[in-house]
Amino acid sequence: MNSDTSLQSILTNPAHPPEISAKTCPLERLGRLLRGTWTLQVLWVLGEGRPLRFGDLRTVIEGISAKVLTERLRFMEHTGLIWRCHEEGVPPKVTYGLTEVGTELHDGLKRLGRITDKLPPE
Amino acid sequence: MNSDTSLQSILTNPAHPPEISAKTCPLERLGRLLRGTWTLQVLWVLGEGRPLRFGDLRTVIEGISAKVLTERLRFMEHTGLIWRCHEEGVPPKVTYGLTEVGTELHDGLKRLGRITDKLPPE
DNA sequence: CAGGATCCCCCCCGATACTG
DNA sequence: CAGTATCGGGGGGGATCCTG
């Protein structure tokens, strides 16, 4: 326990050139991965439940439009968070689910989400 | 290991009404908390380093404008992720740092950020 | 059923200029 | 130094209509 690490010392100590850089920030990619209003909710419902069809996702994620859902699904498939299973036939049947990485991300974020419980209500 | 949990079984089993809901999705608030292009980078530099002054943040987070930085800082202060320390005087001196919750979030996200290493390069 | 196409809007952000 | 004010652009999103 060094008193030099105290808040007052840190704030008043002039010898603190900021050596850290945001250039190698690993959170930047994570941010782009999760960009979009609905991405986290897609990750959530697929992670909590099971693989779902397009229509089910529309139902479960209340308020999302078909266009945006398609966009998000395409993007998340592209980045490797989800897979897409297309069964030919009439009517068509398309199912989406989390990849291994997607599942990891869901689990991690779920744990992280509990942190917000410590914050005052909005 | 039950074969009923296999992918084929899940996908072809019709008895799967989606009972999960996105209504209680705890990731929604997390998403709003981290919304904005620069929020994660602010969290990153403050979490990796030490409390920084406004000008230092502008320098370290390359490319951010004063306006957006101010917006993000105000918002993150409002949500309780960072604190703001204003020292009167000429020139003025304003320092920002992570709160306890902000630090927790940074640490969690940092661990989570490593998951993206498993994804193919963009 | 699972989308594609189109139009519009709003919010986030960038740039510039100015101030206590 | 640490912001504020203002203008303008772009992309994500909503609503509606259409299709394989």
Automatic annotation (TrEMBL), chains A, B:
SUPFAM superfamilies xref list: Winged helix' DNA-binding domain (SSF46785)
InterPro entries, alphabetized: HTH_HxlR, WH-like_DNA-bd_sf, WH_DNA-bd_sf
Record keyword DNA-binding present: yes
Ranges for domain HTH hxlR-type: 25-122
Keywords attached to this entry: DNA-binding, Transcription, Transcription regulation
Domain of life: Bacteria
Pfam families: HxlR (PF01638)
Name of the protein this chain belongs to: Winged helix-turn-helix transcriptional regulator
Annotated organism of origin: Halomonas salifodinae
